[in-house]
TrEMBL record:
PROSITE patterns: NIDO. GO terms for biological process: cell-matrix adhesion. It comes from Danionella cerebrum. It comes from the Eukaryota. InterPro entries: Epithelial_Barrier/Signaling (IPR051495), NIDO_dom (IPR003886). Residues 36-167 form the NIDO domain. This is NIDO domain-containing protein. It holds the Pfam family NIDO.
Length: 169
Protein backbone atom coordinates (compact mmCIF):
# COMPACT_ATOMS: atom_id res chain seq x y z
CA UNK A 1 0.00 0.00 0.00
CA UNK A 2 1.18 3.52 -0.73
CA UNK A 3 1.44 6.06 1.99
CA UNK A 4 -1.18 8.80 2.12
CA UNK A 5 1.81 11.12 2.48
CA UNK A 6 2.18 11.15 -1.31
CA UNK A 7 1.02 14.60 -2.42
CA UNK A 8 -0.17 15.21 -5.99
CA UNK A 9 0.52 18.69 -7.33
CA UNK A 10 -1.40 20.24 -10.20
CA UNK A 11 2.04 21.35 -11.48
CA UNK A 12 3.12 17.82 -12.48
CA UNK A 13 4.90 16.90 -9.27
CA UNK A 14 4.62 14.21 -6.59
CA UNK A 15 6.14 14.91 -3.16
CA UNK A 16 6.37 12.75 -0.07
CA UNK A 17 7.24 15.14 2.75
CA UNK A 18 4.24 17.44 2.43
CA UNK A 19 2.39 19.41 -0.23
CA UNK A 20 4.02 22.04 -2.38
CA UNK A 21 2.65 24.64 -4.73
CA UNK A 22 6.03 25.29 -6.36
CA UNK A 23 5.66 25.83 -10.08
CA UNK A 24 9.32 26.65 -10.67
CA UNK A 25 11.25 23.37 -10.75
CA UNK A 26 14.32 23.06 -8.56
CA UNK A 27 16.49 19.97 -8.65
CA UNK A 28 18.27 19.20 -5.37
CA UNK A 29 15.52 20.97 -3.44
CA UNK A 30 15.97 18.87 -0.29
CA UNK A 31 12.72 16.98 -0.95
CA UNK A 32 11.86 13.48 -2.10
CA UNK A 33 10.06 14.14 -5.35
CA UNK A 34 8.97 12.62 -8.61
CA UNK A 35 8.49 15.08 -11.44
CA UNK A 36 6.94 13.47 -14.53
CA UNK A 37 6.66 17.05 -15.86
CA UNK A 38 7.16 19.77 -13.26
CA UNK A 39 6.17 23.12 -14.72
CA UNK A 40 3.50 25.77 -14.26
CA UNK A 41 0.27 24.06 -15.32
CA UNK A 42 -3.20 25.58 -14.96
CA UNK A 43 -5.96 23.02 -14.55
CA UNK A 44 -8.50 25.82 -13.93
CA UNK A 45 -8.39 26.41 -17.70
CA UNK A 46 -9.14 22.77 -18.60
CA UNK A 47 -7.88 19.24 -18.49
CA UNK A 48 -8.18 16.83 -15.59
CA UNK A 49 -5.88 15.52 -12.91
CA UNK A 50 -6.85 12.18 -11.41
CA UNK A 51 -5.26 9.60 -9.13
CA UNK A 52 -6.09 6.22 -7.68
CA UNK A 53 -4.56 3.28 -5.93
CA UNK A 54 -4.83 0.12 -8.02
CA UNK A 55 -5.05 -3.33 -6.45
CA UNK A 56 -6.93 -5.16 -9.23
CA UNK A 57 -4.91 -8.29 -10.04
CA UNK A 58 -5.48 -7.99 -13.81
CA UNK A 59 -4.35 -4.36 -13.96
CA UNK A 60 -1.36 -5.09 -11.71
CA UNK A 61 -0.34 -7.96 -14.00
CA UNK A 62 -0.35 -5.55 -16.99
CA UNK A 63 1.72 -3.00 -15.08
CA UNK A 64 4.14 -5.71 -13.89
CA UNK A 65 4.61 -6.91 -17.49
CA UNK A 66 5.64 -3.37 -18.45
CA UNK A 67 8.56 -3.37 -16.01
CA UNK A 68 9.18 -7.14 -16.03
CA UNK A 69 12.76 -6.72 -17.22
CA UNK A 70 13.48 -4.87 -13.97
CA UNK A 71 11.08 -6.70 -11.65
CA UNK A 72 12.97 -9.88 -10.91
CA UNK A 73 10.71 -11.26 -8.21
CA UNK A 74 6.96 -11.36 -7.70
CA UNK A 75 4.30 -9.27 -9.36
CA UNK A 76 3.36 -5.80 -8.18
CA UNK A 77 1.07 -5.86 -5.17
CA UNK A 78 -0.03 -2.25 -5.43
CA UNK A 79 0.13 0.70 -7.80
CA UNK A 80 -0.58 4.40 -7.37
CA UNK A 81 -1.56 6.00 -10.68
CA UNK A 82 -1.66 9.74 -11.33
CA UNK A 83 -2.79 11.15 -14.68
CA UNK A 84 -2.58 14.71 -15.94
CA UNK A 85 -4.86 14.70 -19.00
CA UNK A 86 -4.73 17.67 -21.42
CA UNK A 87 -3.80 20.14 -18.68
CA UNK A 88 -2.93 23.54 -20.17
CA UNK A 89 0.34 25.31 -19.53
CA UNK A 90 -0.08 28.46 -17.44
CA UNK A 91 1.11 30.52 -20.41
CA UNK A 92 -2.02 29.42 -22.27
CA UNK A 93 0.02 27.93 -25.13
CA UNK A 94 -0.31 24.15 -25.34
CA UNK A 95 -1.35 21.27 -23.11
CA UNK A 96 0.33 18.28 -21.52
CA UNK A 97 -0.89 14.70 -21.06
CA UNK A 98 1.28 12.38 -18.96
CA UNK A 99 1.01 9.76 -16.25
CA UNK A 100 3.08 8.51 -13.32
CA UNK A 101 2.65 4.99 -11.98
CA UNK A 102 4.32 4.06 -8.69
CA UNK A 103 4.36 0.31 -8.16
CA UNK A 104 5.79 -2.03 -5.61
CA UNK A 105 5.98 -5.62 -4.51
CA UNK A 106 7.50 -7.04 -1.35
CA UNK A 107 11.04 -6.46 -2.67
CA UNK A 108 11.20 -3.41 -4.94
CA UNK A 109 9.55 -0.14 -5.98
CA UNK A 110 9.42 1.35 -9.46
CA UNK A 111 8.28 4.49 -11.17
CA UNK A 112 6.74 4.18 -14.61
CA UNK A 113 6.10 7.37 -16.59
CA UNK A 114 3.94 7.50 -19.71
CA UNK A 115 4.00 10.57 -21.93
CA UNK A 116 1.17 11.27 -24.32
CA UNK A 117 0.59 14.59 -26.06
CA UNK A 118 3.04 17.04 -24.52
CA UNK A 119 3.20 20.42 -26.26
CA UNK A 120 6.33 22.48 -26.69
CA UNK A 121 6.71 25.24 -24.09
CA UNK A 122 9.07 28.06 -23.28
CA UNK A 123 8.19 27.78 -19.58
CA UNK A 124 10.73 26.48 -17.08
CA UNK A 125 10.27 22.71 -16.62
CA UNK A 126 11.88 19.57 -15.26
CA UNK A 127 11.22 15.86 -15.77
CA UNK A 128 12.87 13.34 -13.47
CA UNK A 129 13.19 12.51 -9.79
CA UNK A 130 15.29 13.46 -6.79
CA UNK A 131 15.76 12.25 -3.22
CA UNK A 132 15.86 14.43 -0.15
CA UNK A 133 19.64 14.01 0.14
CA UNK A 134 20.08 14.00 -3.66
CA UNK A 135 21.96 10.69 -3.48
CA UNK A 136 19.68 9.42 -6.23
CA UNK A 137 18.39 11.74 -8.92
CA UNK A 138 17.74 11.71 -12.63
CA UNK A 139 16.73 14.29 -15.22
CA UNK A 140 15.22 13.26 -18.56
CA UNK A 141 17.78 13.96 -21.31
CA UNK A 142 15.62 16.08 -23.62
CA UNK A 143 15.72 19.75 -24.49
CA UNK A 144 11.95 20.37 -24.48
CA UNK A 145 8.93 18.60 -22.93
CA UNK A 146 7.53 17.87 -26.40
CA UNK A 147 10.44 15.45 -26.90
CA UNK A 148 9.37 13.36 -23.86
CA UNK A 149 6.79 11.60 -26.06
CA UNK A 150 9.52 10.16 -28.27
CA UNK A 151 12.06 8.92 -25.68
CA UNK A 152 11.95 5.92 -23.40
CA UNK A 153 13.86 3.04 -21.89
CA UNK A 154 11.21 0.32 -22.27
CA UNK A 155 11.21 -0.16 -26.07
CA UNK A 156 8.05 1.98 -26.18
CA UNK A 157 8.33 5.66 -27.17
CA UNK A 158 7.17 7.92 -24.36
CA UNK A 159 7.48 5.28 -21.63
CA UNK A 160 10.21 5.20 -18.99
CA UNK A 161 10.73 2.87 -16.04
CA UNK A 162 13.01 3.49 -13.06
CA UNK A 163 13.75 1.54 -9.90
CA UNK A 164 13.23 4.00 -7.04
CA UNK A 165 13.75 1.96 -3.87
CA UNK A 166 17.45 2.62 -3.39
CA UNK A 167 18.55 -0.85 -4.52
CA UNK A 168 20.88 -1.27 -7.46
CA UNK A 169 19.34 -1.19 -10.93
Amino acid sequence: MFSPACQVSNNGLLTFTGPTSDCNPILHSGKDLIAPLWTHLDNTKGGTISYREETNITVLAQITATVKANLTSSAASSAFIVTWDSVPYYSGRGVATFQAVLLSNEDHSFMLVNYGNVSWTDQTWLAGYDTEDSVSSFTMPVSNPHDLSSVGNTNVDGRCSFKVDGSSN
